[in-house]
């Protein structure tokens, strides 16, 4: 286990979580993007969330991490309802529960150097060792496959795969217990996708962090997740152990997804 690594200590329980949007974009109508979703993710586990574009996966992830207010429901972690915590008391939970986004090009400030981006967690979260942060960063980046010479480059000068490595290394400086991975590889070339998924797996083995892994890719989820949930139009239609759900789906929509996916691959 990594020195000072944070082992996930609790099961994250999402209970009856919903989100409705009312906006001018919807011409005054209400749209239920997430509809009464309940799921649980155990310590050190990867839960795969699958569903077509627009079914509410990112909205669910953003509510769990408190980037978006929920309309109703609870997100229990370590005995606390995260949705009940006032913003001013959220900082310690923001460290423990993190999110990695799909778009490498917007994940880091393109004008900042990689080193400056990696310094940010120390400054924003007042991490111990702040006075030695450059030394800590240089020792920290190696297992993430980040070459020391990258530290002086600007984010705009590094590839998408390298950015995901840097963002993950930056998140892991905070020793989070839980990360929402929102399509972490969908913008990357296939060969780089496999490297990033492998890195995520290695990080999980080393630190015990839990993941909610959001993806359109059934093969990727089958490989990476111990449990899987299938979302459709805001609802979680079916969930369970990955092999059980994919080998014997009970919902017709899941069967159709699996058939379409096999067809696309053949
Ligand atoms: N801020 C918003 N205002 C109004 N509607 C929104 C807003 N954010 C998301 N939506 C709508 O909520 C629904 C769910 O969106 P969401 O981004 O969660 O889907 P998704 O499954 O993550 O899709 P994708 O795989 O394409 O990222 C969509 O219909 C989307 O248009």
Characterise this structure.
By secondary structure, the chain is of the alpha/beta class. The protein has a domain at 12-108 and 179-265: Rossmann fold (3-Layer(aba) Sandwich). Helix content is 36%, strand content 24%. It is built from 10 helices and 10 strands. The strands form 2 sheets. It has a 6-stranded mixed β-sheet with strand order 6-7-8-3-9-10, with helices on both faces. β4 and β5 (80-81) form a beta hairpin. α4 (114-125) runs parallel beside α6 (160-173). It is globular. The termini are far apart. The model has no long low-confidence stretch (mean pLDDT 91). Bound molecules: adenosine-5'-triphosphate. Adenosine-5'-triphosphate binds next to β2 and α1.
Short description:
Keywords: ATP-binding, Hydrolase, Nucleotide-binding, Transport. By secondary structure, this protein is α/β, with parallel strands linked by helices.
């Amino acid at each position: 286990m990594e020195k000072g690594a944070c082992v996930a200590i609790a099961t994250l329980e999402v209970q009856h979580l919903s989100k409705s949007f009312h906006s001018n974009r919807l011409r005054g109508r209400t749209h239920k993007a997430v509809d009464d979703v309940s799921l649980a993710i155990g310590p050190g586990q990867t839960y795969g969330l699958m569903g077509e574009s627009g079914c509410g996966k990112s909205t669910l992830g953003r509510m769990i991490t408190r980037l978006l207010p929920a309309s109703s429901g609870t997100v229990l972690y370590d005995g606390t309802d995260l949705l009940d915590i006032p913003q001013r008391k959220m900082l310690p939970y923001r460290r423990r529960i993190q999110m990695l986004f799909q778009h490498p090009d917007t994940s880091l400030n393109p004008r900042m150097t990689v080193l400056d981006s990696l310094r940010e967690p120390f400054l924003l979260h007042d991490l111990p060792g702040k006075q030695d942060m450059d030394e800590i960063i240089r020792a920290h980046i190696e297992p993430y496959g980040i070459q020391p010479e990258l530290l002086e480059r600007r984010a705009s000068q590094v590839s998408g795969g390298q950015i995901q490595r840097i963002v993950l290394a930056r998140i892991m400086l905070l020793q989070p217990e839980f990360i929402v991975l929102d399509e972490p590889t969908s913008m990357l070339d296939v060969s780089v996708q496999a490297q990033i998924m492998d890195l995520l797996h290695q990080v999980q083995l080393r630190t015990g962090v839990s993941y909610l892994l959001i993806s359109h890719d059934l093969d990727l989820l089958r490989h990476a997740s111990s449990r899987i949930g299938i979302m459709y139009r805001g609802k979680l239609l079916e969930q369970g152990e990955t092999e059980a759900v994919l080998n014997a789906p009970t919902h017709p929509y899941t069967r159709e997804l699996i058939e379409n996916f096999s067809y696309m691959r053949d």
